[in-house]
Write a structure and sequence with these properties.
The protein is of the alpha+beta class. The chain has 11 helices and 5 strands; from the N terminus they run H-E-H-H-H-E-E-H-H-E-E-H-H-H-H-H. The two termini are about 35 Å apart.
Length: about 250
C-alpha cells in the first residue's frame, strides 16, 4: 500500500534542500540561483510558507527580472533549451556552453546574447531528468566572470547535480502519479518499442511472429496498465518510464 506524502512535510523538506542549494552557490562563488521542478511548466517552486522559493530562499541577479512569472521564459531561455539536450551538468563560460567532454549539440546553442541580457557571466547548470519524462533544472550563476570555472565545474559538478536532484525529486513527491508501479510484459514492451519506431501492427506481427490482433491486444493492455488512452500515449508513458529506450 502506498502512503501519500504529507504536503506540509514535503514543503518543509524542500525548504531545507533549497537552503542547501543556495548555500552551495555562495560557497563556490555562484550565488545566484534559479530552479525549476519542471521546465515545461511556468509554475514556480514553492517553499514551506507557500511563497515562491525564487522570492524567499534564492537570489537572482536582478530581482526585477521575475523569470518565474514569465510564462514564455522556458521557450526563450537558452539555459532551459540546453537542459533539454544534456542530462548531466554543464557550464556557461566565456560566451558558450561546455561540459567535461565534447557535446556538439550543446555547444551549438547560441547563448552569449541572452546571458548578457540577464547579466550572467558564469554559470553551472544541473538538469534533473525524472521518471515520467519530467525535466527539472537548477542554475547557479555569477554576474562576474569566473576565471577558473572549468576547474570549479570539474571539482563540484557531482555535488551540485546531487543537490539539484534531491531538491527537485523532493519537490515532486506527491505531485507525480502515486499509483503502484507498472510492470509490462516482454511482449507488451516489444510491441510498444516497434510501434515507437513507426511500425504498423502488421509490421510488428511479422517481426516478432504473432498475429496483428495479438499485437493490438498487447498495446491496448499496456495502455490500460499505464492508465493512458491509446497507442501514442502508451508509447510516450512507457518511454518516460524507461521501458522503450532507443528505437530498434
Amino acid at each position: 500500500m502506498l502512503t501519500k506524502v504529507d504536503d506540509g512535510e514535503r514543503l518543509a523538506r524542500v525548504t531545507v534542500l533549497a537552503e542547501r542549494v543556495s548555500a552551495l552557490g555562495r560557497e563556490i562563488g555562484l550565488p545566484y540561483v534559479a530552479a525549476s521542478a519542471d521546465i515545461s511548466s511556468p509554475e514556480p517552486m514553492l517553499g514551506q510558507d507557500g511563497k515562491p522559493l525564487a522570492e524567499t530562499t534564492f537570489e537572482w541577479l536582478d530581482n526585477a527580472v521575475r523569470y518565474w512569472r514569465d510564462r514564455a521564459f522556458a521557450l526563450r531561455a537558452p539555459f532551459i533549451l540546453a537542459a533539454r539536450y544534456s542530462a548531466e551538468p554543464f557550464f556557461y563560460h566565456q560566451g558558450r556552453f561546455s561540459s567535461w567532454r565534447p557535446l556538439p549539440r550543446l555547444e551549438a546553442i547560441e547563448v552569449r546574447e541572452a546571458a548578457q541580457a540577464f547579466g550572467i557571466e558564469a554559470a553551472i547548470i544541473a538538469p534533473t531528468y525524472l521518471t515520467g519524462g519530467v525535466i527539472g533544472a537548477v542554475v547557479w550563476a555569477a554576474s562576474e566572470p569566473v576565471a577558473d570555472l572549468p576547474a570549479l565545474y570539474a571539482a563540484r559538478a557531482d555535488d551540485l547535480h546531487g543537490a539539484a536532484l534531491r531538491l527537485v525529486c523532493a519537490y515532486r513527491d506527491g505531485l507525480d502519479d502515486d499509483a503502484p508501479p507498472v510492470r509490462l510484459t516482454k511482449r507488451e514492451v516489444q510491441c510498444l518499442k516497434w510501434a515507437a519506431a513507426g511500425k504498423t501492427d502488421a509490421d510488428i506481427a511479422q517481426i516478432i511472429g504473432i498475429s496483428g490482433p495479438t499485437v493490438r491486444f498487447h498495446v491496448q493492455n499496456a495502455a490500460l496498465k499505464l492508465r493512458v488512452a491509446g497507442r501514442a500515449q502508451a508509447i510516450h508513458r512507457a518511454a518516460g518510464l524507461g521501458y522503450i529506450g532507443a528505437a530498434p
